[in-house]
Specification:
With 311 residues, this protein is of the alpha/beta class. The protein has 13 helices and twelve strands. The protein has one domain: Aldolase class I (TIM Barrel), CATH 3.20.20. Bound molecules: iron/sulfur cluster.
């Protein structure tokens, strides 16, 4: 075994196809928002070093991973984000950037730098009014959630105009504060020429910060279904081509996460919270052996394909 840049290296043939087809790579915990429901890593955790992140991408690409969702925290806060995305794209991976949109809205040149390395961009919007969106998207200034609302609604048409091949996913976390303001989102999007390719609704989950604030956020399965059905009907009317939902019951077994410390995490079947299975920086082979006991490969691939369809 050789050690390179702090990460284990093994014989390629030996490790071939040893990872699932898609991985969610949480590049950092730091964020420019502090949403109560956040299921990202602790915001104190800084970004993984760029050379280590590139090494991880390289090893994943040589071991069966075909798609990476780059997430956080807020990935656009990383100076080397274009380098990291380029590293994935030049290995022919399907690339998704999950971002809250605030930095991209304020730094126009960043979109130009990263768009050529992206297949999908995933943006969030939690309500059809700026006030309720701000109840969910909490920031460090009183108007952060309002700014976020306008940032996302301004970004979608800009991306459409400048990068017509870059697909857009909109995500909405459904919780107590926005329960009655989700179904109106499709009409808002239509009025702003901001129709995404996929709209995915998530039932708020008791993970990370969401766990700490769950008593004020939790909704029942029935409430989530009602909101989803109302929202879906409006989405069809307004021409959103792909509407998906994700309940807490569906979460386990469909994701492999890598956090900024290199920890490999799945979703625990009983608690819906993260479950540590190893570390890709210090034990890549160990993770390669363990993940199959926690992940349903077909369900993971199908979930990614439904959310980010190729055509
Ligand atoms: S949910 Fe996203 S935008 Fe909000 S604090 Fe977490 S990482 Fe940041």
């Amino acid at each position: 075994m050789i050690k390179e840049a702090g990460i284990e290296s093994t014989n390629d043939a030996e490790m071939e196809k040893q990872f699932p087809s898609s991985v969610d790579f949480m590049l950092l915990g730091t964020c420019n928002l502090k949403c109560n429901f956040c299921f990202g890593p602790n915001h104190e955790i800084p970004a993984m070093r760029t050379d280590l992140a590139v090494d991880v991408i390289d090893k994943l690409s040589r071991n069966g991973v075909e798609s990476i969702v780059f997430t956080g925290g807020e990935p656009t806060l990383i100076k080397d984000l274009p380098v990291i995305l380029y590293a994935a794209k030049r290995r022919n991976l399907t690339t998704v950037l999950s971002t809250n949109g605030l930095t991209l809205a304020s730094k126009e040149e960043l979109l130009d730098e990263i768009a050529p390395h992206l297949d999908w961009i995933a943006l969030p919007l939690e309500a059809d009014t700026p006030e309720v969106n701000a109840d969910m998207r909490v920031g460090f200034t009183p108007d952060a959630g309002i700014k976020h609302f306008e940032a996302v609604l301004g970004l979608i048409p800009r991306i459409r105009e400048r990068y017509p091949d870059l697909k857009i996913k909109l995500g909405t976390v459904v919780a107590q504060p926005n329960l009655d303001r989700v179904a109106g989102i499709p009409d808002l999007l239509a009025s702003r020429c901001a129709i995404p390719d996929t709209w995915k609704l998530y039932q708020v989950s008791p993970s990370e910060y969401g766990k700490l604030n769950y008593s004020n956020l939790q909704i029942s399965d029935e409430e989530f279904e009602r909101v989803y059905e109302e929202a879906r009907a409006r989405a069809i009317q307004t021409g959103i081509p792909n509407v998906q939902k994700y309940t807490n019951e569906e979460r386990p077994g469909k994701y492999l996460f890598i956090n900024p410390r290199g920890d490999a995490l799945t979703v625990h079947p009983d608690t819906s919270d993260y479950f540590l299975i190893g570390n890709v920086l210090t034990g890549f082979n160990d993770v390669a052996k363990k993940w199959k006991s926690h992940i349903n490969t077909q369900a993971l691939t199908a979930n990614f394909g439904r959310t980010y369809p190729q055509n």
